Fold these 2 entries.
Entry 1:
Amino acid sequence: MKERNLVQENIEKLEKLFPGCVTEVRGKNGELKKAVDMDLLRQLLTEGETEETYSFTWVGKRAAMAEADQPAEQVLVPRKDLSLDWEKTGNCYIEGDNLEVLKLLEKDYGGRIKMIYIDPPYNTGHDFVYRDSFAMDSGEYRSRTGGDGKNIPADGRYHSDWCSMMYSRLTAARRLLTEDGILFMSIDDNELSNLQKIAGEIFGGSHFLACFPRITKKAGKTTEAIAKNHDYVLAFSRGDSPRFYLPSHTDAGFKYSDEYVEERGKYKLNQTLDYNSLSYSPGLDYPIEIDGETFYPGNSYEKYLERKEGKHARADWAWRWSRDLFEFGLKNGFVVVKKYENYSRIYTKTYQNARIVRTGSGFAVEHVNRTRAISTLEFVENRFSNDNGKKNLLKLFDSSVFDYAKPVALIRALVQYSTSGDDLVLDFFSGSGTTAQAVMEQNLADGGNRKFILVQAPEATAPRSDGARAGFGTICEIGRERIRRAGEQLKQEHPSAAERIDTGFRVFQAENRGMDEGGRR
């Protein structure tokens, strides 16, 4: 909670590289402080003259950039009365403005968060509640741009305030991620392009990983000609080598068993040893004898003789394995002969949990957990839709209590793919608390000990909403109660794992610093 001045810290770092670019200026309070001569720094870092550059900007961007580096003005106050298992838990639920909280978290959590998931306001015209100190009212916007200041999609301020809000928060959030950490962000068409540009500028364009479309609903009434049934999940990495935990791969083809099934799992037969589409190589064209029967690539002795005389195409029949690899595979159970009515063919076995690898002295059997790549179409199944997000809440409450809650399956999949062990997961637009439930459920599934940090502004529930009718005055009250009920449900359904799963949380509230007798914070 110690106050930091990140601007001055960054200037000191620049001074070590470019001492001539750092000078002194007198601040508003009359004290001297270090500053950067940006014109001189630009000259030193520019090769040749350039008049035009590609840039993405909006009115208020500079203020948003500066705000992310300003010291926090608040402190985190513990609320044991609102917490659950304060003495035992490693989870945190923080109520307050998330920009302030992100700054406060940096001291203890800088570079320690493995995954961040956020579901920020989509800026649909009625869900934007973040009015930062650098956000402009319509009068100021008109004076700086000449616009009329109406908050409609065609107006610049409609996007400017949202972009400024996201820029400062993503800048602060990046500092919390581990070098192999990953950021996931839900968004829809309203701000997709802007969010991708903002994150690309902060994290680096080369650290953009994927844009996953996500189904929001399968069908439904709409007054528009085109029904919008999906949104997106953007993924960015902090460093060059993000660490993923790929999902296990299995399919119906793994249905055969042999004497190795206990150690290798089941196997499938989907590849013959001979192919006619390989670039022809004489070394891969040889006879094989098994149980008194001789095999040739393509099942033809005559064609084999022609190929050996040089009468072959550029791509022609040959074995996929060299002679020494085949002998190793045959000896170790990776080869099977399938007999048909008039002929036989050699197949190679693909085991679920084993494969042949080359070693310095030959070959060996390596035991593996077969995985698959994460598809960009991973989240188009109905279990990832908003309907299931609503069903998740109805299992815990008498009504949905929160509109447009993300489904547990979505965030749990992201947690599974990007974290393990005792990794930390952060959500600083936590809403109803789906991320906490997802972390607890994934820990139950794979034995992990992940911890969550949730941040949510204490927004009032909308009048006459299901949440308000259920007696919840703020979004935070809904989030805390959801975590309590989800944790209790897990313990009831899995009593043997009740002691292992951390379902508690410590509550903190961000509050303004007090003043000393001299009027200082």
Entry 2:
Amino acid sequence: MLGVVFFHGGGATPDSDREVAYTTFKDYVAKGYTEKIIVNKGEGTARLTVRPEHIRDVFKRGADQVGKQPTVTARIPSADKLDDYLSASGYRGSVSYEESSGTLRMIITSLLPMALLIGFWFYIFRGMRGGGGSGVFSVGKSKARVIEKGEGTNVTFKDVAGQEGAKQEVQEIVDFLKNPSKYTELGGKIPKGALLVGPPGTGKTLLAKAVAGEADVPFFSMSGSDFVEMFVGVGASRVRDLFTKAKEKAPCIIFIDEIDAVGRARGKNPAMGGNDERENTLNQLLTEMDGFGTNSGVIILAATNRVDILDKALLRAGRFDRQIHVDLPDLPERVAIFGVHLRPLKLAPGLDVELLARQTPGFSGADIANVCNEAALIAARHNRKEVGRQDFLDAVDRIIGGLEKKTKVMTAGEKRVIALHEAGHATVSWLLEHANPLVKVTIVPRGQALGAAWYLPEERSITTREQMLDEICATLGGRAAEELFTGHISSGALNDLETVTKRAYGMVAYLGMSAELPNLCFYNNQEYNFTKPYSEHTAERIDKAVAELVAEQYERAKRILSENAGKHARLAETLIEHEVIFTADVEQIFGPRPWKSRADELLESAASTPSAATGEDEPGSGEKTEPEADTTAIEIANAAPAGPETALADDKSATTEAPSAATDKENETEA
């Protein structure tokens, strides 16, 4: 209706073109108001242009309101009679004639807007009906991508390196779909749902793709965010449609990536409000999963890295019966992952893959893929024909520490302070049994750090109090060296102090490792928690215990440095001269460390395990026997994840517990 009113209103005659009677028209000609006349013989009209000085006489308004050349149109008896009148009246102005008919133009002018309006509504209606399920009327349809039986993907279990336990779990699901009688004859029931849980980049989605590639059944793939739209009820409708299609093609697999987008716990914090549409979608998902028959043949795989926020009803038996943990790879697994990502690269002969795996503790599979790609880019940047070891080591440095700032200018005094600081880290960590093995020390600015001590973090399953204390002491070695040998302290220890404080609070408040508050844990894993689970008096005791613990380790670091002041000074001078020193340089000054690293023990254990060589399963293989502990609390207590640390202080000297370059003389010379 609005469109009709608009277009009819647009057809009104403007004030600058007035239609008058023929007698009035002749009167204007007789009075001399006319500047020129245009006669349209086909329409039977005459249009005169009013002289500027007579505009107000004709329109009762000025030219600024009606235009500078307004016209007056009148119906005429015929062109000949108008000519006779003009001759009789003595008109001497301009007269022109038009033969074209205005009927077609009138029809187009009147009908074109209506035709455009009809076409517009037809287009909208067609979009609402939707082609291929993308219209408004199909908004409640599932957006799942379907891989039909026999199509598969390019990814198989051979492309998933490491994660042997997780692969065994999902292979069992594939085997059940291919040969269900093997399990049902014994009375077994396959789980209805399996949840892939792990940090980002560990290969959860890759495992699902491998299942799609291996399973000879239809595979429905969908993201959790695809369920929810701005319209109320769409999510629940899509869930119903997805499961309806899946039941029609059973046996099949449904994969929901990032299920926490719809699976977040309902009403976890009522004070902050809720999302009714998301919760309705979750309720429908729970209903559909619970409504399956025992042998329906529909299995659900889901992936998330936030299992702690999922609704309890989603994790109960009968829905997601089991959780498959896809953890960060350890050293032997990283060797296997490197083998996968090195296949497409043109490598230099004799590349030591084990060395690369040692340089990347805490790296996920996605991180390792990034290292391989970055190494290839570095090699191409230097016009090399092959990707060599130094390219990979430079790639690790680039990813962890950032770009090298070759244009950064420092004074001799600043350079000396940074060298003393980093040499302090190297000295203390070298002389402590449980400190992470040192790889490289540098005072070359990189990223946001003016200098860094690079370590290979020990990938421990559990961490003892002695190990944590040694790491705190080594981290404080830089600040202690500044105070001891310069008499001043600087802002360069910002990152060190942040790490030490978090780790000390974790030891005292979460792990019960202090004499002040032994065997007490105040950790609360609730997502929304606005109250501390302890009193103000206890908070004061925690603060006191943390301060005493840090002060004790700081004095311990100063004592170690005082006892080895000469060697520390030689190390600092070597660092000032070469800017980068490696393990071999430190070993020449302090002698070899008598302690074997955990990485060496892991490799020796993997080499001596029969299943590693033969591929045969052993009793209990794939099962981890770890002590009961809250992994999140331990990570908070450690305050230094096994992966690369990138949050270095701005223009500060920092201790980076992350992999770096190798220790050979060739690399030392290049540095």
